[in-house]
Structure formats: C-alpha cells, structure tokens
Specification:
This protein is an alpha/beta fold. It is built from ten helices and 13 strands. The strands form three sheets. The chain has a seven-stranded mixed β-sheet, sandwiched between helices. A four-stranded antiparallel β-sheet has the order 3-4-5-6, with helices on one face. Helix 1 crosses helix 8, helix 6 crosses helix 7 and helix 8 packs across helix 9. The longest helix has 20 residues. The radius of gyration is 18 Å and the shape is globular.
C-alpha cells in the first residue's frame, strides 16, 4: 500500500502517503488499520475512516476533556467522577487523569482490540493512563452500560465514531436520555459530532434528540487537521446554561490551579470555542 484514501464524504476525500502498514485486520466489530505516514506520524483508521494520528491527536483529546471538566469545576466545584464511552486509544483518558480532583474514571469501550493495539502501536497517546489506579476499563457496549448502571458521574464524554456501523447507536435519543440519567446534578455530557460543513445533519439531529433530555444543548468547536472539513463540532448537553458561559477569569483561575500544560486548550480557546459561525447556528434551529 502506497497511499491510503479516506473517502468519508460524497465526492471528496483525503489521501495519505503510507510509509509502512503496521497492522491490518478485521476485529469483532470493524476493519482496523494502522500505518505510518511522513506527515501525520502513525494513523489508525476504522472502517476506512481516520480516527487518530500521533501528529494532531492532542487537539481533539484536550478539547473533549478539559472543556467540560473545567466548565463544571468553575461553576459546581471539583469534578471527581468521569465516564468515557469509547476512546479506546486512551487519549481522552490521559487528559482526564491530569486533573488531580478526578478520583475515578470509568471507560467503556466495545472493542478490546482497539485498546490493545493502541497501547502497542500508540503508547504515547495513552501515556500510561490505563495503568493509573483511578482507571476502570470495561469492555462492553456503552449503550447498555448507561442504560443499566446505577453509578453517577460529574462528566460523561462520548468519544465515538461517526453515526455509521457500531457508532450509530451513540447518536440516538434513548442514548442521550440514559446519559442524562447517569449524570449528577449539574453534570455535563460532551460528544463527537462530526464536521458540520460536510455533516450538517449530525448537528440538526443532535439538537433535536439531545434536547429531549437536556435543558441546554449546544456545541463548541475545534480544528483537527485530519478531520477534514474545517471546524469540528463537539456536542454539549447540560441542564445549566451558565456552564457554557463561564467567565474567562474563572477559567483562568481554575486552569492555573490545575497546573496542566496543554498544546491546544487554553481558557481563551475554551471561551472562543463556543462562538459559533452563523452556518452552524442555522443548523440548530
């Protein structure tokens, strides 16, 4: 293989020069390939859709973790219990555990092979997070877990694939309702919501479906180079609209106290991420 072609959107795709294929096989749930590139380092793709690269993983993982944790911490006090659905590469787990207030992270991943292969081929992404005593890894269906568990969490982070294949059930109204049920009062749900320029229906569907359970539904954005199409939308569900508008001063104080070094997230980027361009706001009506 000399090139990997990702044809995620109709009539448009992206191409990666491949130096070497490190792994390719079909797991119990999806086709998985790991390869090396001269531009983005190591890349993992599931069902021919790029999931993570060593070059730009920090953008997505920092914004998925620090935005909800710091927003809730500023308004509601320390975040202690976090649930991650998906996230088998361990990047979000790594970032969540950087918060010393966090005493427990339950991570529910449906595909054991993703976890094992990520630790073998992408060890720097999880950076030992799976060995942290605060981590509880459960290999199971995340939809079933939130429907049945009696545990409660301050933050729920859904690091899913797009709504095709195994990830489709993580975009349903019933799933959002169960996520709301497992949140403590004032808790926050964040989700991967695609690239609105190419996937506008994901934004419209999420507003409608998540809005049945949460009083405040919105989005914030990040730019991840390998998630082609410009701004990536990250879904936000909470019952307290004030958490989407925490003051910059409060975020700066909390971030300084957390003593976390980041490469993309900052209190200023946090605030700016919630300023949506009109074409995204129009999709929310």
């Amino acid at each position: 293989m000399k090139r990997f072609i990702e044809a995620l959107h109709k009539g448009y795709g992206q191409s990666f020069e491949v130096d070497r294929v490190l792994f390719r096989d079909k797991t119990e749930h999806q086709d998985l390939i790991i390869f090396e590139t001269p531009t983005f380092g190591r890349v993992m793709a599931l069902d021919n859709i790029v999931q993570v690269t060593t070059r730009d993983e920090f953008v997505y993982h920092e914004m998925m973790a620090h935005v909800p944790i710091l927003a809730r911490a500023c308004a509601m006090g320390e975040v202690a219990d976090v649930l991650i659905i998906g996230g088998g590469d361990g990047g979000i787990l790594r970032e969540v555990l950087r918060h010393q207030s966090v005493s427990r992270v339950v991570m529910v991943e449906i595909d054991r092979a993703v976890v094992d292969l990520a630790q073998e081929y992408f060890p720097d992404i999880s950076a030992g997070a799976f060995d942290d005593a605060r981590t509880e890894l459960i290999i199971a269906d995340g939809v079933k877990f939130v429907a049945e568990t009696d545990r409660r969490f301050d933050v729920v982070i859904v690091d899913s694939t797009d709504p095709v294949g195994p990830g489709e059930v993580l975009f349903r109204e019933s799933f959002y309702a169960d996520c709301h049920r497992v949140l403590k009062a004032g808790g926050v749900l964040v989700t991967q919501n695609g690239v609105p320029f190419f996937q506008p229906q994901e934004v419209a569907n999420t507003v409608q479906r998540m809005g049945k359970s949460f009083k405040d539904v919105g989005f914030y954005t990040a730019v991840v180079p390998t998630y082609v199409g410009g701004l990536m939308a990250l879904g936000w569900g909470c019952d307290d609209a004030a958490l989407r508008d925490v003051s910059l001063e409060a975020l700066q104080q909390r971030f300084k106290a957390a003593k976390i070094d980041t490469r993309y997230y900052s209190p200023e980027m946090h605030k700016a991420a919630f300023a949506l361009p009109p074409f995204i706001r129009d999709l929310m009506r």
